[in-house]
Specification:
5-stranded antiparallel beta sheet; 3 helices
């Protein structure tokens, strides 16, 4: 999520390497050890079978890739080197921004996703494992100015047992486009913000992920006071 301060970005289950690059001025942890292997890639059938034709990743998407461990991130927190040769384009042309969703597995079994709002606005995150408390990879970002321009985009990755994703806005549920272990939804108004994401599984159960609204802090930051909360 290497993005200008004017882009509102929230990502749940962000990879440590990505987080260290986003949180300017926050020192990385230095604990020793190596991160255990993740299971997210094995939970997504999109990575099974023969390797597809290589995806030509746009420069703004490649800029997220960790080709080595950043100096400020310990081995135990690093999601692993991104395997760019295994990248997939899961969704394209979604919403007013014609958003695209790219995914890349890492050498440690994690999966990283990047949402691109052409031509260059992008945001994303990484997930090592899916669980009841972390059912999907989720990124929420505004491709331009807060409360103006194009609406907020919600998207990420899912394991195979997820049947649908609903995005809750102003109390109403909206179906996200979900294909190939990826999902995207762009809100209808630039001054709206999602309240939650509802994950529905093939067995009929569901999980609700509450999304905090950081726009007050973002508005203050755009006005020159990034310390406001």
């Amino acid at each position: 999520m290497r993005n200008p301060a004017s882009w509102l970005v929230l990502s749940i289950a962000v990879g440590a390497a990505l987080a260290a690059l986003i949180l300017t001025g926050v020192p990385g942890r230095t604990s020793a050890g190596v991160a255990r292997a993740g299971t997210a890639a094995r939970s997504m059938s999109v990575f099974a079978g023969p390797r597809p034709v290589p995806v030509q990743l746009p420069a703004s998407v490649r800029g997220f890739a960790s080709t080595s461990r950043p100096a400020r991130v310990s081995n135990s927190l690093f999601e692993g080197v991104w395997q760019l040769g295994e990248a997939r384009l899961l969704l394209s042309g979604i919403g007013p921004s014609r958003a695209r969703l790219y995914v890349v597995p890492t050498e440690r079994g994690a999966v990283c996703h990047v949402i691109l709002a052409p031509p260059t606005a992008a945001a994303g995150g990484c997930v090592a494992d899916f669980s009841s408390t972390n059912p999907v990879g989720l990124t929420v970002f505004d491709p331009d100015a807060t409360d103006a321009g194009k609406p907020v985009i919600v998207g990420g990755v899912t394991p195979d047992d997820v049947a649908s994703i609903q995005v809750v806005v102003d109390g109403q549920r909206h179906q996200a486009v979900i294909e190939h272990n990826g999902y995207l939804y762009q809100l209808g108004a630039s001054d709206s913000y999602p309240e939650a994401v509802v994950v529905r599984y093939a067995n009929g159960t569901s999980r609700r992920i509450k999304i905090p609204d950081p726009r007050r802090a973002m508005r203050a930051c755009e006005a020159g006071d990034c310390r406001a909360n």
